[in-house]
Amino acid sequence: MIEEEKRLDEALSGKAPWRTWGPYLSERQWGTVREDYSADEKAWEHFPHDHARSRAYRWGEDGIAGISDDKQHLCFALALWNGKDPILKERLFGLTGDEGNHGEDVKEYYFYLDNTPSHAYMKYLYKYTQKSYPYDQLVKENRRRNRDVPEYELLDTGIFDDNSYFDVFIEYAKVSPEDLLIQITVANRGAHAAALHLLPSLWFRNDWSWGTPHQKPTIELKLEKNGIQMLQASHLKLGSYFLYSHEPHEALFTENESNKKRLYETQNDSPYVKDAFHNYLIQSCKEAVNPTHQGTKAAFHHPLQVEGGETTILKLRLSNQGNIVDPLEGEFDALFAKRKLEADAFYNKVTPFPLSEDMKNVQRQAFAGLLWNKQYYHYNVAEWLNGDPKTPPPPKGRKKGRNSQWRHFDASDIFSMPDKWEYPWFAAWDLAFHAVTFAMIDPNFAKQQMLLLLKEWYMHPNGQIPAYEWEFSDTNPPVHAWAAMRIYQIEATATGKKDRDFLEKIFHKLSLNFTWWVNRKDAQGRNIFEGGFLGLDNISAFNRSLPPPSGETACQIDATSWMGMYALNLLQIALELSIDNPVYEAMASKFFEHFLAIADAMNNIDGMGNGLWDEEKGFYYGALVHPDGKRIQMTSNTIIGIIPLYAVAISDSRTIHPFPQYRKRFQWIIDHRPNLIKNILEIDQLDLNKPILLSLASPDKLRRILEKVLDEKELLSPYGIRSISKALGAHPFILKLDGQEFSVNYEPAESTAPLFGGNSNWRGPVWFPLNYLLLESLQKYHYFLGDDFKIEYPTGSGQQMSCWDVASNLSLRLIKIFLKDENGQRPVYGQIEKFQNDPHWRDYILFHEYFHGDNGSGLGASCQTGWSSLVAKMIHQHAKYALECNHPERLNKNKIENL
Q1: Which are the contacts of 860, defined by CB distance < 8 A and separation ≥ 6?
Q2: In what side-by-side order are the strands of the sheet with 165-176?
Q3: Which member of 35, 351, 567, 573 lies 3.0 to 4.6 Å from 595 by CB, making a disulfide possible if both were Cys?
Q4: What pLDDT score was predicted for residue 525?
């Protein structure tokens, strides 16, 4: 094993706690549900950015390029002041959902440049202007704009035009699990000297102000020797940690407690409060800090004057060792160099194939963003609903409001978050996609993440998986079984380890969740499922979170297809477990029968042969069924109609295990239920001794669906598959219900609809998760159908390709979003000149939430290296097969499954 692998092995075995410290600090704690104690459930307004510097958080902490221990007792992050900013920059600024013309949006430029799974090496970049930060300008201009125009960004203010800004690089290198070297490199990109105050800050999360039984920790200045100053942070559970710095101008101390006088015009509990450093520096209030050099929040103050074009380096060390003789010299530089080389070796081993430097850069930063977006997540719903002894009681209506049905929920864990500023809370279906990418670099963490939401303090007793904190009871697509099997396969391919214990653990819990779906989301017991918006918040003509406007029942093609996929995924897991334990063959049969029932319902929803497949149009559509039996087909071509393709698997008798009980049950159904089998198989051609294709969409339906999917006038974009047909731009789908008119139209960028806080964006852009599932499905179809099955690609071109080649081409379209084109331009950055041409910007990659349906430019959350990190998996596969010319004809079944 190489060094990073050894660290991960030591962490897993308990030999060395390499995971104790990591980038677990959120980038936004204000404006979250956890901190919302309002009567109207308006989290953004209840705890705005303006309160964040003065108000102690109840459930977590935030900071810039921050780290913490895995229970977030002690936190470290960087605060900055340029001498002109009206606020000490302790956290990233952005707009609330109501302030932004397209919803919430961070208004800063920061980049995740490197990280390793043990967090032995981490690198982050923050770009800080030398001018007064335009907070008011950003708010006012975005409020002025309507949804028909783009967002007003920080670059649009012109504040970076003359390069009067600092590149602030923050790097961490672990000497040992609890001994971290910290290097802050400040590069003045402007032409003139400029001042910058650096405040590396150390503080304790406040768990003592709420009337709970927690002993208050302390931080104090311990010594000063040979120019080295040291802070000692002492905590009852964590023990003591020491922060070393060389010749700081001063050490500042206060308490991490609310400034009640500023916030509420009441008396403070302490004369020293959370915003003391802001008041000390910017308001010149010298009495704001504690002169006795004690508190629960401290910082070393390093005022710098950096010449134009010059660079300054600051070194610190955070360690559980308080007697280091030479903490910032000696091994410091050599250790950093060593950790960087180890990171290179690790990632070279992850993708040991020839890649361009640009592809390597994109993949490395995708992994870095995935790792930096880990966060400690703390939320006890019962305590949150009831309120704390030392705080005013929450409004009475709160106990019947948001998440009130989840009183058992008690979170205190490290999660992979979608985006630690825009989405600093887990999202159930996002997490499954994160875990698949994590499986490439840290399969044990991937498995832990998949099991986490199934623990009894997360999963509802009725079997529901919590969706996300804005509403745990919302329903996300059930992709966890798919992700679990993919993680199992990826790890087996990379290491030879087949972790059936993991599969067995997750199988039992997911069986409960599957039953919840069957019992709760099939209103009429017909195997036609509802589920609301299912993560696709604005893809329908009306708000799918609410009942249909005129009392109909929604027959959702996506919900039903997801359940077909779920059944096949659990079938696949059950058969894998049956290799060691034949008991699971009975469960495989159960899920096979569920799949048959769902396939039958999709083709025969009313018992008269009418299903969700439209033979004339050659596409799957959802429907609304009125109580009187009247049916309305939702005939808009959207990505929902391709979700049936995800429900595909190969049943192959040539595997190493015959599965006799499963095969016996399979034969019984063929003999006694031919009406069910005919929906998925050609019975007269069926041979159980040959591979069998199990799919909701037959090869003929696949071909017809792909006619629209691969049509550049419909769903095929130069950068992947759009979520809504481009044709709907000129000819929207119109639906009239109960005197109201609803429509679906194509919008390649941000949606103009006001649903879901204004950031409803499934009206046309390209999204990575559904694209990725389509790629895998096409590869499975190819395994069964082979090279002889050809598809016209693109539609109308006359060019015929196999399913494998179509998948490869689609994958490359998605990858190219981030790569430089022949003109050196990255589609992800559109017309943003600074990002396209400036040498200090152009090679830093932002992995957005979604991408423009026509030009590939990045949209939505800018650091959602959660599911957009799937590009790293695509690059790996591209390198492994396309660049190595390993044609799929030479691949066996095991390799196909493990792509």
Answers
A1: 422, 750, 759, 761, 848, 849, 850
A2: 109-115, 121-129, 165-176, 179-188, 311-319, 239-246, 228-235, 218-225, 294-295
A3: 567
A4: 82
Please indicate whether residue 884 or residue 753 has the higher confidence score (pLDDT): 753
- Percent of the chain scored above 90 by pLDDT? 80
What is the Cα–Cα distance from 10 to 322, expressed in whole angstroms?
Answer: 24
- Report whether 122 contacts 778 (CB < 8 A): no
* Bond prior to 794 in cis (omega within 30° of 0): yes
Side-chain half-sphere of 16: how many Cα atoms within 13 Å?
16
In DSSP terms, 172 is beta-bridged to: 122, 182
**Does pTM surpass 0.85?**
yes
pLDDT tens, residue by residue, 2-32: 999 999 999 999 999 999 999 999 999 999 9
Per DSSP, the three-state class of 63 is coil
Q: Return the structure tokens found at 12.
A: 């897993």
Question: Which residues have C-beta within 8 Å of that of residue 348, sequence separation ≥ 6?
Answer: none
CA-based end-to-end distance of the chain: 23
**Whether the Cβ atoms of residue 121 and residue 135 lie closer than 8 Å to each other:** no
Q: How confident is the model at residue 398 (pLDDT cuts 50, 70, 90)?
A: confident
Q: Which two tokens stand for residue 502?
A: 């993991």
Please state, in angstroms and rounded to a whole number, the distance separating the CA atoms of residues 727 and 243: 60
Phi, psi of 567, deg, nearest 5: -60, -45
Amino acid at 419: D
Which tops the pLDDT comparison, 506 or 681?
506
Handedness of CA 844, 44, 73, 454 (dihedral sign): negative
The torsion region of residue 618 among left (phi > 0), alpha (psi -120 to 50) and beta comes to: left
Q: What is the 3-state secondary structure (H, E, C) of 243-301?
A: EEEECCCEEEEECCCCCHHHHHCCCCCCCCCCCHHHHHHHCCCHHHCCCCCEECEEEEE
Encode pLDDT of 65-109 as tens digits. Answer: 999 999 999 999 999 999 999 999 999 999 998 899 988 999 999
Averaged pLDDT of the chain: 93
Instruction: Name the residue type at position 478.
Output: P
528: nearest Cα among 556, 500, 488, 502? 556
Convert the pLDDT of each residue in 327-336 to its tens digit.
998 889 999 9
Residue at token pair 């047909």: 725
Cα 260–Cα 266–Cα 268 angle in degrees, nearest 5: 50
Beta strands in 82-164 (DSSP E): 94-95, 105-106, 109-115, 121-129
CA 429 to CA 166: how far, in whole Å? 37
φ, ψ at 788 (rounded to 5°):
-75, -25
Whether the per-residue pLDDT at 894 is higher than 70: the answer is: no
pLDDT tens-place string over residues 447-492: 999 999 999 999 999 999 999 999 999 999 999 999 999 999 999 9
Residue 38: exposure state from Cβ atoms within 10 A (0-12, 13-18, ≥19): middle
Q: What are phi and psi for residue 126, nearest 5 degrees? A: -125, 130
Q: What does the angle CA 863 – CA 865 – CA 870 come to, to the nearest 5 degrees?
A: 150
Contact 181, 257 (CB under 8 A): no
Q: How many whole angstroms separate alpha carbon 865 and alpha carbon 372?
A: 9
The answer to whether 821 and 831 have CB atoms below 8 angstroms apart is no
Burial class (CB in 10 A: 0-12, 13-18, 19+), 3: middle
CB atoms inside a 10 Å sphere around CB 424: 25
Reduced to 3 states, what is the DSSP secondary structure of residue 885?
Answer: coil
List Cβ neighbours of 463 (8 Å cut-off, separation of 6 or more). Answer: 512, 513, 515, 516
Question: What is the arithmetic mean of pLDDT over 636-647?
Answer: 96
pLDDT at residue 655 tops 80:
no
